[in-house]
What does this fold into?
Amino acid sequence: MADVDFGRAAFDRLSPSACVFESCDFRNVKLDRRMLPLFKAKRRNVFRRCRFDGADMRSIDPGSSRFEGCTFDGADLDGWTATAAELIDCHFAGRLTHVRFYGKPWGPGAAELIPARTKNEFRGNDFRGAELVDVAFLMGIDVAKQRWPDGDEYVRLDRIHQRLTRGRTEILRWKDLEARGEALQMFQSLSFLYMQQNEVVARRKDPEATAAPEVQAKVWDALARAL
It folds into this structure.
């Protein structure tokens, strides 16, 4: 299926399976539950060079869909947990909030994927124009194969678990008990979140984090110094 403008399409139900959507236009479309089968097909669908700019995708679980060269500029992905989706050479811009991308299939349906696989291909994606708020890249995503925002607003650290182990010693020496408590809680959260991830990219002062912004910054600085 090629060059379809879903902003003008009208249908009660759409349930394609093992289809390729090429150069289709989903711009500014509210993707509600009627379109969920498009992304949750038993045999996954592939979206190639499709445009999701400005689309409201909060009600959509991407399932095991594969996105190649798609744009998500200004798309609302709030709450996305992409446990089985694959994204290659996609472009993101605007605010991304509460999103999780996974480097390998995870969850109840991971063993039932058609075709079966043990990794989610995730490479060449461009986040330079995106504002990442409570966004995490997990379970083996290769950070070096993506493009990230420049500047000091974000941190990029390898060997995160070694850093957490060594950095904790510095935190325990803090004299401010309240700040120390927040920092230790942040350490615990990071250890759990990045359980199967080695290199991380994160916002230095995430407005959705529990710890105060200045505590977050000091924690990331301590982790950077740890190795």
Observations:
- The two ends are 51 Å apart (CA to CA).
- Helices lie at 36-39, 160-171, 177-193, 213-225.
